[in-house]
Amino acid sequence: xxxxxxxxxxxxxxxxxxxxxTNPRTTRPTRADLVALAGLVIxxxxxxxxxxxxxxxxFTWNMDLWSPWTASADAEDLAxxxxxxxxxxxxxxxxxxxTDAFSEGRAPLWNPWIFAGTPFLANFQPGxxxxxxxxxxxxxxSVPDQMSWYLWFHLLVAVTGxxxxxxxxxxxxxxxxxxxxVFGWSxxxxxxxxxxxxxxxxxxxxxxxxxxxGWFDRRGGASWAGMxxxxxxxxxxGFAQIFVFTxxxxxxxxxxxxxLRRPHPRAKTWIGWALAGxxxxxxxxxxxxxxxxxxxxxxxxxxxTEMLASGTLHPxxxxxxxxxxLLGNPVEGSNATHALTVRNGYYxxxxxxxxxxxxxxxxxxxxxxxxxxxxxxxxxxxGALLAAGGLLWCFDTPLLxxxxxxxxxxxxxxxxxxxxxCAGVSVLAGLGAQRLAGPExxxxxxxxxxxxxGIALVGMLFAAAVTVSPGVMVPQRVLEIAGEAxxxxxxxxxxxxxAAALALVTLRTSARIGGxxxxxxxxxxxxxxxxxxxxxxxxxQPESAIFRDATPGGxxxxxxxxxxxxxxxxxxxxxxxxxxxxxxxxxxxxxxxxIEDALGFxxxxxxxxxSAMHALDPATVVKRGNxxxxxxxxxxxxxxxxxMNVRFVLAAPGTRLPGFxxxxxxxxxxLENAGAVPRVxxxxxxxxxxxxxxxxxxxxxxxxxPSASAASExxxxxxxxxxxxxxxxxxxxxxxxxxxxxxVNARRPALLVLADSHDPGWKASIDGxxxxxxxxxxxxxxxxxxxxxxxxxxxxxxxxxxKGAILSLGALxxxxxxxxxxxxxxxxxxxxxxxxxxx
Length: 839
Description:
The chain is α+β, with helices and mostly antiparallel strands. The protein has 29 helices and 24 strands. Strands 8-7-11-13-12 form a five-stranded mixed beta sheet. The chain has a five-stranded antiparallel beta sheet with strand order 17-18-24-20-21, with no helix packed on it. Helix 17 (377-394) runs antiparallel to helix 19. The longest helix is centred in the N-terminal third of the chain and has 26 residues, at 143-168. The radius of gyration is 30 Å and the shape is globular.
């Protein structure tokens, strides 16, 4: 170039970073991919190895702490680690129910074992028709083995999905592996092994994002199917809130990805993208429609902003971004998270909700790429948006008031959005590792290096303060529960991790080590940092100690024999000591032994059932729809329990109650309720009351006799409130989850009462003729019968299940058709910036 008579040298062109090809025809796995993926598979397998190949199972609760199992436990059994009872009270029980149903050749639609019966499929969390669940249920594996392999599979889905996403972003295999490790062993994933559906639903997010990127790159059938299938799998996996977050994130990513491209995608691309999302949602219809109907009757169907805000992170919990053990360790018995409350405290802080740690080195890498994104501006922008969105949703910010009005976001705990934060940091960490390992990693990103240094120093100072003066950094109540020594040790570990992260970044930016060595060391440091925390949370139990066989001569065998001889009945617990570490056959845990619990443990139950338990004994009602045992001994004599067919009261060994005969007393006391009426009965009169509160008051009064009459909120044609003598006899001929057959010999027009929960999905027929079911006794099903011998059949056939199944099947066919229709794609990139050189 000649200017003013002088020659001006031309600046050399900046070297291009090799990018992973986006053309589907050239995206076959390389040797580096095979090595990286093999390493991830090995790491996940080692993490769960004692459960996959030994005598252990991934099971976060020690059942030997509860009666009747504690009677046969020794000191070593009682000392086993434990941290989350939901695993035993809910998720293992649901897997038992589903496995039994599929082995009998039926779909598990109804759960007869808790709450006098409750919808099972409509609960959403069992993930009844989620393909991995169906396969495991039919595999012949024990339930503990199913849970272990389920978690192994989904952690593998999560890490390989994040790896594939970052490779689609044109990152090297090493940088993509760094991001995958961050996501797989982040605090969110590590803390949720006791709530496996949360891991499963979140695991499909990176696959949905990867398919979306591929769609905007090439518009191929594989990418279109990937978007729809990933969204569908996230929903079918069973955790509704994580699915909702995943769907919104997928939508946001598509909008960002398309809006920032030049030229903008064509209308055909946007239409195909929207159709994939619609098909993904429709795939979940078989779960979604029954759940939507059920939630309309649930006790927490509508939550106000105050309730939602209580499920956000306490400001003190923000310290766990840098020091994961700041609030103690539940496995060591030092968990102090519950000492913190937000707003009205409806939701309390837990070790799971506050598990937001994503590693210290990943934070530094994320900050560096945000200041210097290089060729990955669009990807860095979305990674930051993802992390920031998850972070803002986790705290009590104005975003809650806005989000509450968006479909699907106005329920349950907002802090579960922590998985979006972890996913965002994972993406940014991978991008940062790529940037730092490349030519720009040395000397050209000084500002970003200074920011990373500053953040590392802040982390080190915070960790040092926690180590030296924990009482200054956390409230006194937290310090009393967790212990100064425990919090101090956590500070030391974080101080070391921050120093190591800063040292590694400095070595690379000062060109003391090469890019390849940096990636290897980054993988090792990130794995060690996150793995140490995750391994503590990965609690396992001996398979033999998980719902072990009933002890000969023990209480479980006694109850099983009585049920076989007498037909169905219910039990209830009498508890004087509170706390999940103690208890007698805790809620829902009787189901694997065929024991029906009048109470139960589940995140969803109806408002009516809650009001009935509150009328019985307010102490039984726990927030979020769960129940403890009866605390007031006088409540055990209520006619409410007689009407519910509660035949036995379970209590700690040696317990005696006035008016109850002790019929068994070994590993727990079993007291018989002589006033319990049979599961089915004929009554000649129906007492009508103006509303449900009046019905409950009448049923709670000592004068109420459930064997003589029933209580109703509306008249039943042909029946009066006068009992009028003996009505006849009724007997259960067969009793299954979704079908009950009753023989009736009525002496006059009467009401057949089945003491099982009324639900609109139940249908009844008398001698083959369909008849209406009336709600009686506040909760139960009633059918009017004429004189004579009759056969009454109750069947559970919810219309929402049939509609949902048809829609899901239609969506599956649309998925296949769409995949074939879109074919192999356009064969060219959507924009010139997407054409890249082979790696």
